Amino acid sequence: MSPMSQPAAGPGAPEPGALQPLLPSDPSRLAGYRLLGRLGAGGMGVVYLGRTDTGELAAVKVTLADQADQPDFRARFRREVEAARRVASPWAVPVIGADPDAPEPWMATAFVPGPSLGEAVRAHGPLPERSVRILGGAVARALSAVHAAGLVHRDVKPGNILLAVDGPRLIDFGIARVTDETALTSADMVVGTPGFLAPEQAEARAAEIGPAADVFALGCLLAFAATGRPPFGSGSLDALLYRTVHDEPDLAGVPDGLLDLVRQCLAKRPAERPTAEELAARLTEDTPGTAADWLPAPVVTTIATRSAAMLALPAIDATAPGAPTAPPPEPSRRRFLLLGAGAAVLAAGGGAYALAASRRDDTGKDGKSPAPKARDTWAIGLLADLSGPDKEIGRAQERGARLAVEQFNALHKGKPITLELKVSDERGDRGGALAAARRLTTDPAVVAVLGPTSDAAGQAALPAFEEAGVPLLTVSAGYNLLTLGDSNTTVLRAIPNHIMAATYLAFATTLLPQVRRPGVLQERTDDVYSWQYTGGVRFGYKQAGITPHFRVIPGRVRDYRKILGEMIEAGIDAYIHCGVRSTAVLAARALAELGFTGPRFTGQDAYGPYFLKEAGRAAEGWFVCAPVVDPVQRAGNEALKPADRKPVQDFLAAYRKRYGTVPAPYTGESFDLVTMVTAWLATSAGKGPLSRKGLWEALRAQRFTGAMGGYEFDQRGDLKGVGTFVYGVENGAYKFIGSAPGAPNKPKKS
Q1: Would you say 382 and 398 are in contact if contact means Cβ atoms under 8 Å apart?
Q2: Which residues have a catalytic role annotated?
Q3: How many CB atoms are located within 10 Å of the residue 322 CB?
Q4: CATH code 1.10.510.10 for 29-308
Q5: Model's pTM, two decimal places?
Q6: For the segment 154-202, what is each residue's pLDDT rounded down to a tens digit?
Q7: Nearest 5°: phi and psi at 608?
Q8: Contact status, residue 23 vs residue 344, Cβ threshold 8 Å
Q9: Contacts of 289 (CB under 8 A, 6+ apart)
Q10: Disulfide-capable partner of 267 in 272, 324, 379, 688 (CB 3.0 to 4.6 Å)?
């Protein structure tokens, strides 16, 4: 994504809509612009509606100072400004002012009062063919100018096309790049908006990303404008990337006159697509009439309504001739967030965005800011599924977190700092996870949050943590995009992501010398999880020099005997199940009925008592790879040094005393992660006011040893090392085998 898109920044970001009032912390002026209100806001910054003293309106993008302090940010922002200024086209919104070197970098572009293409189609339905042709022709001409300037836009999507009565406008050059330039973009980083990017972008083939990628995106845009839906569907990001690379587009409903042209734009190979210049000519050569009446009446009405609203804005400030102009006040947002400051919630563009409230510039008579009032009670938040489908894991996490907090308070009894656990139940409901997260992130006492329980909740809740600057520590969410890229300063993941976990699973199977032709089944009950596991297994076997037998099965299938029978007939000597627990049970029963006795493997989702209970005898002989350690088995491991066993023995004793039983999976890891935060609190409490600012980085830099072992994180916030453990099912119970290998055991050539 771009450093800060305006006003339509991609999935989950606000699109242009009704003007929102300024907040008390907002500046009233910036450089030569009087700021009249907010057009949108997100974790990266704010987009204001500004006006010059001559009455010219502008969309003014202001980046938060803490974002500007990130490495390479100013270089990317400066590049966005330079890229936009290089494009000369009436169909691209021009830059009319910018300062990339300001404490809070800003850029102003001409204001277009119309809706985005995405907003218009959602509100009024697909456009008629003539409108689509004029839209496509103008955008193609804008892209032709982009390409003539030696640039590639890389994010042509409905939110980046604004509609005006005289034609569309292309906006947002935040991730545009010079052709062949890769210095500021990681070679393996997917850049753009899934669903509107080319296969070469989806697979991060940086050397192949050129002007043809923008043409592919324009083909997606035309299909969306004509049908009201993206040609590669919707859903998880990884599923969209997969369909973009491997599946044919769904073009049902595209008018016959556009069908061939759209198909050519969506060719998988870049060389087979037309150029933007060719596309512009072909789209408009047989379009009757002029562009003056190019939009349907309901869209024109929306534009007129918004234009009329601009007439009701405050009058231009009166300035006496020759009077000196006062310098614009410095924005009042601060570069750090004091925990006692709380948070403000703003509805922007139809979505609620929790924005961290900052301390005001109130000063005493001596001109010095008063010292912030010391807080003596802090909190660790827990975002977990306590009543939904993963409630057993969520409750285990709660018990581990609660025990860590209670031990901290017992150890620091009588000290000036007290800790509490604040719990928010996300119920395993993706739709309610964001609200559940904001109950914690808007609480000024909460210093960090443990959670969430599931991948889906993590995806939905992440914006709340990014906006508030609250670290999120997870021991069970393995979705790779939670920490993807170098911009993550929010999530610490104490387990491998699903792709790496599946790679280690594949490596584990290579320890068995009889495995030469493994069968891999991807089932689609949870498409994100299974797709990532399949990709990791595929990579692991490629590293090992093994060619597996792959099959895919729909999530609705309940009888696995036919497909597994076909895999057995194909000669598989091992079975790897890339899917959730319920279907692993179906596979276990089917393989037992078919008499398959080779090794059988599955991953994280299946680990726990329910797989054993539901599969029964059919679970015998299975191997399950999971990112958790059994504390009882660890405590009894004679291979460990006594000093390494003592922390887990102490944890077990405290847990049995508190709860009267042994801990369930994920309890020990939750205890460790909260203890890591409390250790930071204990050492930081006497050094001045505690702040969320810098906490993620401080925790990420730690090398912490807990009851379950050691924790060390890389620059992205992911766990270093393997972190995947192998269990075998024996006599109805899990037997710890050991840590999965970090490299494959390549079979010897005969």
Answers
A1: yes
A2: 155
A3: 5
A4: yes
A5: 0.56
A6: 889 999 999 988 889 998 765 555 544 443 344 444 556 888 989 999 8
A7: 140, 175
A8: yes
A9: 130
A10: 272
